[in-house]
């Protein structure tokens, strides 16, 4: 199947509810775009750069995200299921700051959970581990027993 080549420049358009099937869309440039409630299925997203994003209500299934870079993102309440993370680095992961929209002055945030994961050879360095539990064991207490 040969694809028709079409380059589009959309500015100040509402394309909500649009559908893209069997489309080659390499090198797209999104700036100041609302993608909430977007569903992405069976996509090659290799090498993407996502900066200053709010990932709420986005569903990504069966996608290749290898080599992708995500910076300055709100990924609160996400579910990540059946993914390969070898070689992945998590750097400067923080709770919301006072200027962030989802900041809670009481600090009442849902815990981050890893369930049924193979964490072989995982390293945790220079991190605040307050309240960190592994299989119900508080790690701070375990380390303080030395």
Textual characterization of the structure:
The protein has 146 residues and is mainly β. It has one helix spanning 139-144, and strands at residues 39-44, 49-54, 59-64, 69-74, 133-134, 137-138. The protein has a two-stranded parallel sheet. Strands 2-4 form a two-stranded parallel ribbon. The longest helix is centred in the C-terminal third of the chain and has 6 residues, at 139-144. The radius of gyration is 19 Å and the shape is elongated. This is Pentapeptide repeat-containing protein. It comes from Paenibacillus albilobatus.
Summarize the topology:
Blueprint: E1 39-44, E2 49-54, E3 59-64, E4 69-74, E5 133-134, E6 137-138, H1 139-144
Parallel strand pairs: 1-3, 2-4
Antiparallel strand pairs: 5-6
Protein name: Pentapeptide repeat-containing protein
List segments where confidence is low: pLDDT < 50 over at least 5 consecutive residues.
none
Share of residues in helices? under 10%
Task: Report strand %.
Answer: 15-25%
Major pleated sheet: 2 strands, parallel
Query: What average pLDDT do the residues reach?
Result: 89
| CA-atom Rg in angstroms | 19 Å
């Amino acid at each position: 199947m040969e694809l028709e080549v079409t380059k589009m420049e959309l500015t100040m358009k509402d394309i909500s509810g649009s559908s893209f099937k069997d489309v080659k869309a390499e090198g797209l440039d999104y700036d100041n775009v609302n993608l909430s409630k977007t569903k992405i299925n069976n996509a090659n997203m290799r090498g993407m750069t996502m900066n200053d994003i709010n990932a709420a209500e986005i569903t990504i299934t069966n996608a290749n995200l290898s080599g992708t870079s995500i910076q300055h993102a709100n990924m609160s309440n996400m579910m990540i299921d059946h993914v390969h993370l070898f070689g992945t680095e998590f750097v400067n992961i923080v709770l919301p700051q006072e200027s962030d929209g989802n900041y809670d002055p009481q600090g009442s945030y849902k815990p981050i959970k890893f369930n049924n994961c193979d964490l072989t050879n995982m390293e945790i360095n220079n991190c605040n581990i307050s309240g960190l539990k592994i299989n119900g064991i508080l790690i701070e207490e375990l380390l303080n027993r030395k």
